[in-house]
Description:
This protein is an alpha+beta fold and 503 residues long. The chain folds into three domains: 8-77 and 188-368, BirA Bifunctional Protein, domain 2; 92-172, Herpes Virus-1 (2-Layer Sandwich); 395-500, Rossmann fold. The protein has 17 helices and 23 strands. It has helices at residues 13-22, 44-62, 80-85, 87-90, 107-120, 124-139, 143-152, 196-200, 203-209, 255-272, 318-327, 360-371, 415-426, 440-450, 460-465, 486-494, 497-500; strands at 26-28, 40-42, 68-70, 92-97, 104-106, 169-172, 176-177, 189-190, 216-225, 240-250, 280-284, 294-302, 305-316, 333-338, 345-349, 352-359, 372-379, 386-393, 404-408, 432-434, 454-458, 467-472, 478-482. It has a seven-stranded mixed beta sheet with strand order 3-9-10-16-13-12-11, with helices on both faces. A five-stranded mixed beta sheet has the order 20-19-21-22-23, with helices on both faces. Helix 13 links the parallel strand 19 and strand 20 (432-434). Helix 5 packs antiparallel against helix 6 (124-139). It is globular. Belongs to the class-II aminoacyl-tRNA synthetase family.
Amino acid sequence: MSNPTAPADAAQLKDIVAHAKEYGFVFQSSEIYDGLAAVYDYGPNGVELKNNLKRLWWEAMTQLHDNVVGLDAAIFMDPRTWEASGHVAGFNDPLIDNLDSKKRYRADVLLEEKAAEYEKAGDPARGAALTAEMGRLLTANDLAGVRQLIINEDILCPVSGTGKWTEVRQFNLMFSTQGSAVDSDAPPVYLRPETAQGIFVNFLNVQKSARQKIPFGIAQIGKAFRNEIVARQFIFRMREFEQMEMQFFVRPGTEGAWYDTWKAARRRFHEAVGLSPAKLRFHDHDKLAHYAKAAVDIEYEFPFGFKEIEGIHSRGDFDLTQHQTLSRKKQQYFDADIDPGTGKAYGNYIPFVVETSVGADRLFLATLCEAFAEETITEGEGEAQQTKTRTFLKLHPALAPIKAAIFPLVRKDGMPEKAQQIFDDLRFDFRVTVEEKDAIGKRYTRQDLIGTPFCIVVDGQTLEDDTVTVRDRDTRAQTRMPISALRAYIAEAVSFRRIFEKL
């Protein structure tokens, strides 16, 4: 018997971080050299979970939509790309230092955290007013006003506890490197700060080669790099991260309807992968980019509060127009469909864009936080009965790093060999493992801690009738079934179809 599973927010971030390291999900990069700040490596179980999330997103975009195709653009791009996009001149964070602690902070983050405090204290109107005022000041590039707002709100340095702040200044977030090994005067080449521009510069290449008609989308998964000064909260904010983006090109005038469509679709995706609806919310942007018509974040309630995991933006024709201007190459699309208002073809125009952009690492962290579960269970009977806390990862079976673990009950009597036969049969379809070491209870616990949905036990009866006991991770219920039924049983539970049906 057991008590209900504890909510995900009962776990502190430190518990998640410790679990991620101990069980092979995430390691600090270069840890033997004391680590590189805000850079992380994914371990054996982490890379499986992350790859499953990426593959799920990819297939949900390109397989379920006949008008979305894929792209894998290079990280290095012509430097003029970032001039056209505005990153060279305007990709900045407002930074402020505390004179006593010498610590550096993002001014907007300090204000956002203060607004979150008001919301938690039951005064959401005051928090919203603070966020709106911050947005107004940043839009006007009034950095002195931002500093004064911090002072007026009596925001103190978490380290020194004082409010002795420097002036606010802007810091460009792009990493740059030398563009030529032989020409020292060559312009710098940037590590891309976003993956979207690789899609925009390939708009016509993809449209023509894939024979797509408006509306259509281009999806991409790839690394991006930002020189974050304030990188924290584990893998939530990193200097090297992975984005899963889709740019959807539409006829001007239809972008509003498509924005609403993708906003709803993306919310359904996060619920389908297992994130609690109660822990998801939309947050409309108070500060819009000058080219944007609308922007909203899908936020998840992490142990450190609601934070963005995905953004949906109506970008207008800004990006393609900018690239057309700077490259002097037309980025127009010829639309042969008939405009019912004029009775003529729509003709040439630069499409508008609706963007969906989800952070693979943030989705990974949200999934890990959601799955981290603890429950009180009672084992044994009579005087031998004992109560203990069980910790496990309640991952959707389709996302679990390992789908099934096969346990010979003892390491003799032909049971290990039979377990190996089952492994050899299932390994072509699923990620499975064989484990022989320690008592069966300890083996269950190890698999629970990495989220394995099924444990298959080979015992004496197996050798007689080719049946095994299958133990369910979440309920701990045990079912006896023929070995011949295992493939279909596991396949039904771990299929992406179970998730796709909810979309």
